[in-house]
Design a protein that fits this description.
Elements: E1 4-12, H1 19-27, E2 34-35, E3 48-49, H2 63-66, H3 71-87, E4 98-103, H4 109-122, H5 131-135, H6 139-148, E5 154-157, H7 163-176, E6 182-189, H8 194-202, E7 231-239, H9 240-245, E8 252-261, H10 274-286, E9 294-298, H11 305-319, H12 321-326, E10 328-330, H13 333-336, H14 343-357, E11 359-360, E12 383-384, E13 387-396, E14 400-407
Parallel strand pairs: 4-5, 4-6, 9-10, 9-13
Antiparallel strand pairs: 1-7, 1-8, 2-3, 6-7, 8-14, 11-12, 13-14
Helix pairs in contact: 3-6, 7-14, 10-11
């Protein structure tokens, strides 16, 4: 089976608009959560989010293109621009061997809301001619394929909060099984807007805290819900020998992928954690289950009551209790919020950086341990550690479970 490596990364989050800035803020425990500025939250139950700040799409796109694209596509283009430049892959792979696999949970929800309002106020003839391509969830993937001449598989995956983890995993399989030599993989989301905030709040999923330092509290017994974030994460993955032959910089191996479904409930995780544990087990086993070197897990860690307990149980069942208690785990959602369909992609970027640099990002604000969440969640401060394997876990509404495994690369 062909080996796959990561050769480029890019990201846009509440902690910055490029990977170096985000990573420094992340390991320094900076909180990207604050009051929502995009709309009046007076009548909303939740008024905090992890908004992307000082984002200028004109740095990556022509003005005419910006007018024709939803925010989530703009984030995807920005993150991909960084990843493509980082990888230096353009011109080294045949167009028909270059694929795109992206994830998004809701796609162009801003365009949908804006055009619906316009129609109600001004009538159907005022709807933008670009409404449909702005709104459809696959348009970010299509835009990147057009932009970079990727004529191989171009797939959009929507599995709620597991979307971009599944997208990365399916890109891995495409390269492994010979359908592509390199892929742009990841996800994007731009869903901090009135309807989505109200919807998640009304189903009791969002934190209602007014304190940014007491809102996103993964694995803390005070937790009461997640905080929404937005942005994008993009990775360039390619077949190992292809990367070596062109002298590419290699971050690490993308070495394992597990994908399962609870088939249990539309929103709540299956408390038995049977299927989520299997996704973790499958990814770890596929990576070779190394017994030497530390293990880092970037947990889904939403800060909801059910998720954090179930995920803790899943990690124990998936790895076995001995390895689970040795693993170092953190939820970076404590700093960047929950990016819905883009969460897994951004967290995959963090996992590969932790593996490369030997620094474990912290779970900030974890001050009151929940007895049911009794693993090592790297509270408050980053940790220096030699790790050989990094896992990234995503669990989505509908029972979607996905896990990626990354392994250390040494020249």
């Amino acid at each position: 089976m062909r080996k796959v490596v990561v050769t480029g990364i890019g990201a846009v989050t509440a902690l910055g608009n490029d990977v170096p800035t985000i990573w420094q803020n992340l390991i320094n425990g900076v909180n990207g959560i604050g009051p929502i500025t995009r709309f009046d939250t007076t009548d909303h139950k939740s008024n905090l989010a992890a908004e992307v700040k000082n984002f200028d799409p004109l740095a990556f796109m022509e003005r005419s293109e910006v007018r024709k694209t939803d925010l989530f596509t703009q984030y995807a283009v920005a993150a991909a621009s960084e990843a493509i430049a980082d990888s230096d892959i353009i011109g080294t792979v045949a167009p028909d061997r270059f694929g795109v696999y992206l994830g998004s949970g809701v796609g162009g929800i801003n365009a949908m809301a804006q055009e619906q309002t316009r129609m109600l106020q001004s009538g159907p003839r005022r709807i933008s001619a670009f409404f449909v391509p702005m709104m459809i969830s696959n348009i970010a993937a299509g835009t990147l394929a057009i932009r970079y001449g990727a004529k191989g598989p171009c797939i959009l995956i929507t599995t709620a909060c597991a979307s971009s983890t599944n997208a990365i995993g399916e890109g891995l399989r495409a390269i492994r099984h010979g359908y592509a030599d390199a892929c742009i993989v990841g996800g994007a989301e731009g869903a901090i807007m009135p309807v989505s905030i109200a919807g998640f709040a009304n189903m009791m999923a969002l934190s209602t805290s007014n304190d940014p330092d007491a809102a996103s509290l993964p694995f803390d017994k005070r937790r009461e819900g997640f905080v929404m974030g937005d942005g994008a994460g993009i990775l360039i993955i390619e077949e190992y020998q292809h990367a070596v032959d062109r002298g590419a910089k290699i971050y690490g191996f993308l070495s394992g992928y597990g994908s399962t479904c609870d088939a249990s409930h539309i929103t709540a995780p299956d408390p038995s954690a049977e299927s989520s544990a299997r996704a973790i087990h499958d990814a770890f086993a596929e990576a070779g289950s190394p017994m030497e070197g530390g293990i880092y897990i970037n947990a889904h860690g939403t800060g909801t009551q059910l998720n954090d307990v179930t995920e803790t149980f899943a990690i124990k069942k998936g790895l076995g209790e001995k390895l689970a208690y040795k693993a170092m785990i953190s939820s970076t959602k404590s700093m960047i919020g929950h990016l819905l369909g883009a969460a897994g992609a951004v967290e995959a970027v963090f996992a590969i950086l932790a593996l490369k640099h030997g620094i474990i990002p912290p779970t900030i604000n974890l001050k009151e341990s929940d007895p049911e969440c009794d693993l090592d969640y790297v509270p408050l401060k980053a940790r220096i550690a030699d790790i050989s394997t990094a896992l990234s876990i995503s669990l989505g509404f509908g029972g979607h479970n996905a896990c990626l495994a990354f392994s250390k690369y040494s020249e």
